[in-house]
Design goal:
By secondary structure, the protein is α/β, with parallel strands linked by helices. Helix content is 38%, strand content 20%. The chain starts with a strand and ends in a 9-residue tail after the last strand. The protein binds 5'-O-[(R)-(carboxyoxy)(hydroxy)phosphoryl]adenosine and zinc ion.
């Protein structure tokens, strides 16, 4: 018998609902609706209060749309999964309240899902072969984490960013280059026209890979952003440099190369050190084709790299439904006292003991 799971995601600036159909044959994404809040573009970043209000206005219709896509009515929903954090607390609250109301009135199980666990599950919707053990690189606007995933629900933190998230670095550099928000996709597009090696930016913390210290798998992106700033505005507080479009494309490429080099080197090193044959990249920055191509090239013949399509890499409710369905199937439930938390930790997350060098 098939089971229908409704997922709801409102952690930031996408209002999203999804319906998954689970049966013995597998899990199928039956309906997905994502409404991106364009209002934030005017401000060059997400305005929390506006995000919450826009979620309130849109969520009911977004849920209806996902159900209609799946061809089911609310009464057929067997369980409800909702993002409970991390994210903007006011935005999360809209989704959590909506999910609670539906679960209570329909008398169905409710599950609060961690947004990052959602990103980890996203590729499984298109690549059913993705299964632990694997190394997971989570790169979004708010997080940059390298995880050893020996089993679902068992997450060992190899390293994370010490300052800016990878997506945040893309967004900040995009701003410096006068591109729109969010900046990842525009940087990638501009970089395609860039000439290689005209600029070279530092690869922060790359050399830490060679020493078995606590920062071996850690990342740092704020220095890289500052290095770009020094080219764009050579004298601090002074006039911006007169850059041509070609210069800006060269800068975008040099920045993207530097960021992707570090992300790729650390992920591939961890895969080799653990002796795994699979890796996944998740979160909005996983939309970056240059990053994925570089990682696939680096791990060719050693490990497969699973990445979802762009629609499922950026924030969406399908990934929340996928992670929620897995936890609901294990009998996990949230109570009516479920509260969103902006700093909700990934469940089952422990610090990984430092890995020794490559095993092969
Ligand atoms: O996962 P996500 O949708 O939201 C968060 O949970 O943060 O990630 C959004 C981030 C933004 O910083 C955006 O600039 C970045 O993902 N992004 C990209 C690309 N597409 C989106 N970064 C690099 N290259 C891209 N093509
Ligand atoms: Zn996200």
């Amino acid at each position: 018998m098939a089971e229908w799971i409704l997922g709801i995601e409102t952690s930031c600036d996408e209002t999203s609902a999804a319906v998954l159909r689970r049966s013995e044959a597998g899990t199928e994404l039956a309906g997905l609706s994502i409404l991106s809040q364009d209002v934030h573009r005017i401000f060059g970043g997400v305005v929390p209060e506006l995000a919450s209000r826009a979620h309130v206005q849109a969520l009911g219709s977004v849920v209806e749309r996902a159900l209609a896509d799946a061809g089911i009515g609310l009464r057929q929903v067997d369980g409800i999964a909702v993002t409970a954090g991390p994210g903007l607390v006011g935005a999360l609250l809209v989704g959590v309240m909506h999910a609670k109301t539906l679960a209570y009135s329909l008398d169905r199980p409710l599950l609060g899902v961690n947004h990052l666990e959602g990103h980890l599950f996203a590729p499984t919707l298109e690549d059913p072969e993705l299964a632990p053990p694997f190394v997971g690189l989570l790169v979004s606007g708010g997080h940059t984490m390298l995880l050893d995933v020996p089993a679902w629900g068992d997450y060992r933190l190899l390293g994370q960013t010490l300052d800016d998230a990878a997506g945040e670095a893309f967004d900040k550099v995009a701003k410096l280059l006068g591109l729109g928000y969010p900046g990842g996709a525009p940087i990638e597009r501009l970089a395609r026209q860039g000439r290689p090696n005209r600029f070279r930016f530092p690869r922060p913390m790359l050399h830490e890979l060679d020493c078995d210290g606590p920062n071996r798998y850690a990342f740092s992106f704020s220095g890289l952003k500052t290095a770009v700033l020094r080219v764009v505005r050579p004298v601090p507080g002074g006039e911006p440099a007169a850059l041509t479009d070609a210069d800006r494309a060269d800068i975008a490429l040099a920045f993207q190369d530097a960021a992707n080099d570090v992300l790729t080197a650390k992920t591939a090193h961890a895969v080799e050190a653990l002796g795994y044959s699979a890796a996944m990249v998740g979160g909005g920055v996983a939309c970056n084709r240059a990053l994925v191509a570089r990682l696939r090239e680096r791990l060719a013949g050693r490990a497969r790299v699973s990445v979802a399509s762009s629609r499922l890499n950026t924030d969406n409710a399908a990934m929340i439904a996928a992670a929620g369905a897995w936890r609901l199937s294990r009998g996990e439930r949230s109570g009516w006292d479920l509260e969103p938390r902006d700093d909700l930790p990934l469940p089952g997350l422990v610090a990984a003991s430092s890995l020794s060098g490559p095993t092969k």
